[in-house]
Amino acid sequence: MDFWPEFLASSWGREFVAGGFGGIAGIVSGYPLDTVRILQQNSKGGSAFNILRNVISKEGPTALYRGMGAPLASITFQNAMVFQSYAILSRALDPSVSTKDPPYKGVALGGVGAGALQSLILSPVELVKIRLQLQTKTQKGPREVAKSIMKAERLRGLYRGLGITILRDAPAHGLYFWTYEYTREQLHPGCRKSGEESLQTMLVAGGLAGVASWISCYPLDVVKTRLQAQSSYPPPKYTGIVDCFRKSVRADGYAVLWRGLGTAVSRAFLVNGAIFAAYEIALRCLFSNGSIPQENAMPAE
Q1: Nearest-CA neighbor of 164 among 83, 91, 248, 90?
Q2: Residues 6 or more apart in contact with residue 140 via CB below 8 angstroms
Q3: Cβ-based neighbours of 269, under 8 Å, separated by 6 or more
Q4: Is 70 exceeded by the pLDDT of residue 289?
Q5: Which position has the higher pLDDT, 137 or 156?
Q6: Are 283 and 14 in contact (CB under 8 A)?
Q7: Contact at 8 Å (CB) between 104 and 75?
């Protein structure tokens, strides 16, 4: 059988489950660094190490996992939907797509479509997650934060930042899937047809895909974090995407748009390597006996 995202639509159940496993692996492996990234983006400055040290010394290491329930609760469905919609769109958007060796054009277009669709789910989840990660005094859970947002700002408040999330995720996902498919083919020629890439290839190709996509959209992510960190009461500091961009640059210079990039890139490599490895291995388990070709597998530690 074939073991890559562009597989037959009739296999959607297995694709869905495999995508969920990938999402869970990603969120668990990278959440502490994600918390540090959010704190960096919403602060006046400070290195990742200093922020990490302050959080651990004041609140303990469990504070790095604050708010993980919100994305973890939805990550299975969200990531499963991304991989499944990508599989379908990568073929539908390019008439020349072959079920056994989809061209890179279909890969990129499918990624763009999948990124746009997932924003509808991801935007409110990330809003709640960011509010949880930034709270310092009153400790609320995901449900309480979501309820307070709905009570004060209604559904519109819960979807604050949807526009910037789509602008960030649609092109970034196109680059994300294209980089993964291109990189794994370069690292292991012929693997897109044979499905016999090694675990090391999955980890490296997935990690580089994450790094490429995050670098391409990082300034938009900084703006998104700042927009979603504010509430309507009191009156918000930023009135929109352009206003947030202008005020942020005016106050802290253009460097503010790249604040926390090192943390994000480190997390991206770790998380997306885990996502694609878990996804591909889950597909193998669901489609066959779950074995990774021994001649290509990474040696045991």
Answers
A1: 248
A2: 132, 148
A3: 207, 208, 210, 211
A4: no
A5: 156
A6: yes
A7: no
In the block, which residue shows the tokens 């400790």?
A: 139
The per-residue DSSP string of the chain comes to: ---SSS--GGGHHHHHHHHHHHHHHHHHHHHHHHHHHHHHHTSS---HHHHHHHHHHHH-GGGGGTTTHHHHHHHHHHHHHHHHHHHHHHHHT-TT--SSS--HHHHHHHHHHHHHHHHHHHHHHHHHHHHHHH--SS---HHHHHHHHHHHHHHHHHTTTHHHHHHHHHHHHHHHHHHHHHHHHHHSTTHHHH----HHHHHHHHHHHHHHHHHHHHHHHHHHHHHHH--SSS--S--SHHHHHHHHHHHH-GGGGGTTHHHHHHHHHHHHHHHHHHHHHHHHHHHSS-PPPTTTSPPP-
CA distance 96 to 290: 31
The reported pTM is 0.79
Other beta carbons within 10 angstroms of residue 12's beta carbon come to 16
221-261 pLDDT, tens digit per residue, is: 999 989 988 876 678 888 889 999 999 999 989 999 998 89
- Most confident range (mean pLDDT) of 22-26, 157-161, 167-171, 224-228 is 167-171
Alpha-carbon dihedral of residues 50, 204, 297, 110, nearest 10 degrees?
130
pLDDT of residue 84: 85
What is the distance, to the nearest Å, from the Cα of residue 269 to the centroid of all Cα atoms in its chain?
A: 11
Assigned token pair, 249: 């640059």
